[in-house]
Amino acid sequence: MTLIVQQESSGPWARITIFTLALSLAMIIPVAAGDVFSRDREHDYDAPAPGSYNLPVIKVAADGAVIKSNGRALNLRDVTRERVTVLSFIYTRCAAPNACPYATNVMSQLHHLSLEDSALAKNMRLVSMSFDPDYDTPHRLAEYAEAMRDEKSGCEWDFATTKSRADLESILNAYGQAVDKRQNPADPQGPLYHILRVFLIDRDGRIRNIYSSGTLDVRLVLADVKTLLLEEAKVSKQ
Amino acid sequence: MKTSNVSSRFLFVTAFVVVLNFGSTRADETCSSPYLARIDGQEEFVFVWTLGVDGLGDGADKLVTVDVKPGSPTYGKVVSTASVEGRNEAHHAGFTDDRHQIWLAGLDTSRVFIFDVFSDPAKPRYVKTIDNFEKTTGGAIGPHGAYPLPGRMLIPCLSNAKDKGGRTALVEFGNDGNYIATHWLPTKEDAHGAANADFADGYGYDARVLPRKNALLTSSFTGWNNYMRDLGQLLGDAEAMKHFGSTMVMWDFHTRQPKKIFQVPGAPLEIRWAWDPKHNYAFTAAALTSKLWLVYADEKGEWQAKDVASIGEAKGGVLPVDISLSADDKTLFVCSFLDGKCRVFDISDPQKPKQIHEKQIGKQVNMVSQSWDGKRLYFTSSLLAKWDKTGADNEQFLRAYVWDGKELKPQFDLDFTALKLGRAHQMLFGSNKLGPNRVVASK
């Protein structure tokens, strides 16, 4: 998986040596290999019990024209309705470890959890939406998806991009996803500056939470997803 | 729980980048939200949310932009002003987390003015006004600034429409100005399950988050009836003086549920969380008792509050107002309104602050903003329109100083009265260059 990404990357990525990779792995293993349900240095608190709190509606999740990694054109609303959706804006060239790679790791953890939880598998959807359509073509996203989501079962996990920058702009504006080119395109953090944004969307297409650095904790996202599912159960009982 | 495959993927994705995550020079404010996109390099502008004064210039509240780029031909000068409608008791303000907008709050009219400071930070552009605050929030009034959270703004209020006293709420709006929720501060009668309910007074002032502890801390001041009243009259009204906040509240940030109430007498105001990942504490200053307080996690991880130092020795107190904590958690700058001084404390041991310096900033002083590198501090003068001093003591300014680790040395001085601008209140830093927020940068 690593080599696919590395070989197809350009700029500073391609210059990273195996030695650097090995060193990096040694640095990050102690942080990343823990149980997702345990506290860690960055998330030193207990997650709340699902259903013990409310998630107010923030606003309606915007629509827009997108293309899935299989090349199929559709509307964003087609993958942000009828299931509780976790929508993450990313770009695959992102080299800021606590931005897109971290967000994708959280998505991967959620996907993994859904392998053993039929309610999550049936009711949750993950969407990774690229804001780098020039580079993140459907073909490239398919390869990225293959690397990130090697399990075929579990909840849906869609990877999407846009056909044009115009299509992208309207989506980014609606979601408040700030993206800008860095002054130095060879910046080791990646060529784009952006804030981290992940959205929790209920079945009716309403945004119920927005996560960023510091709040994107898989335990909190999971508690939120389950809180929405419990809310639905309560409403249907009534 | 299987995590090995997931962790492996994360390792591969991140492995490329960890060792290339070079730090860069950052000089943003030390007092802003950790969720805020930071300035990359030194601040280029200081935005000053300024109260209008009847008969001075256009008399309206305004956003004043001052150039502070080193070497700029307009360094230390006003480069633009943007007036809003009327006088609203301009007070605190805040950026959205992407730093694209600045939200300017009015304590009297409960209006919130939104400006674009991203397209051209030298010339902020008016976007819109939230002017139905009381109705939208279900009765909260007196929006006291705006604190950026991911994709939304947290607005701690000071009062309520029903009796205009100190009972109030935290209110959330989306970054595009859409209302989200109102969370009323706990009271004795309705403490929402928080511990120490007997202390609860329902008052509010500041609200600040420590992300890694999922902790939201709030402080308390007073309601519209008091903050819109002449200070001299207020001080002589014993009954009115009873209506000041005497609590801080620790909340579960994610659920917005209050967990513990602390008794902190004398109106604890600004909250400053320490920055070091191992420092689980925050400072505040109680205005009416001139005391520094520490809210900290004890050896069992329980949150506690403790009075750790006196500010000044004047009988009756010095009315400490804004405080600024250095990015290395070693130095605390404390402004006191009554004597116009800034006192500097060594807080290397947060339980035992020691005063190491004192500087007369003006006849009166309120706000202080410090650069992330700790070298530059900016001060403004106005507290509240009806609380500011009068006559020759009513100096209104933005004053810049350099801190060399031992003393404050003046850099430039802008006289807001001579410039026909008004009463200078809160400052926020602006720049054309943005970087990641502090949660990212600190990792």
Question: What key phrases describe this protein's structure?
Answer:
heterodimer; A: 238 residues; alpha+beta; Glutaredoxin; 2 domains; 8-stranded mixed beta sheet; two-stranded antiparallel ribbon; 36% helix; 19% strand; globular; disordered N terminus; B: 443 residues; mainly beta; Methylamine Dehydrogenase, Chain H; 4-stranded antiparallel beta sheet; 42% strand
Calculate Rg of chain B over CA atoms. 21 Å
pLDDT averaged residue by residue of chain A? 85
Total strand segments of chain A: 10
> Could you tell me how far the N terminus lies from the C terminus of chain B, measured between alpha carbons in angstroms?
26 Å
Largest beta sheet of chain A: what is the strand line-up? 1-10-9-4-5-6-2-3
Quaternary organisation of the protein chains: heterodimer
What's the main sheet of chain B like?
5 strands, antiparallel
Helix percent of chain A reads: 25-40%
User: CATH H-level name of chain B... which superfamily?
Assistant: YVTN repeat-like/Quinoprotein amine dehydrogenase
Low-confidence stretches of chain A: 1-34
DSSP summary: helix tally of chain B:
6
Write the layout of secondary structure elements.
The complex is a heterodimer of chains A (238) and B (443).
Chain A: H1 2-8, H2 18-32, E1 59-60, E2 65-68, E3 73-75, E4 84-90, H3 100-115, H4 118-123, E5 124-130, H5 138-148, E6 156-161, H6 165-175, E7 179-181, E8 192-194, E9 198-201, E10 206-211, H7 218-237
Parallel strand pairs in A: 4-5, 5-6
Antiparallel strand pairs in A: 1-10, 2-3, 2-6, 4-9, 7-8, 9-10
Chain B: H1 4-15, E1 26-27, E2 37-39, E3 41-42, E4 45-51, E5 62-67, E6 77-83, E7 90-95, E8 101-106, E9 112-116, E10 125-130, H2 133-137, E11 140-143, E12 147-149, E13 152-160, E14 169-174, E15 179-184, E16 207-210, E17 215-218, H3 224-227, H4 231-235, H5 238-241, E18 247-252, E19 257-263, E20 268-273, E21 281-286, E22 291-297, E23 303-310, E24 320-325, E25 331-336, E26 341-346, E27 354-360, E28 368-370, E29 376-380, E30 397-403, E31 408-415, E32 423-430, E33 434-437, H6 438-441
Parallel strand pairs in B: 1-3
Antiparallel strand pairs in B: 2-33, 4-5, 4-32, 5-6, 7-8, 8-9, 9-10, 11-13, 12-13, 13-14, 14-15, 16-17, 17-18, 18-19, 20-21, 21-22, 22-23, 24-25, 25-26, 26-27, 28-29, 29-30, 30-31
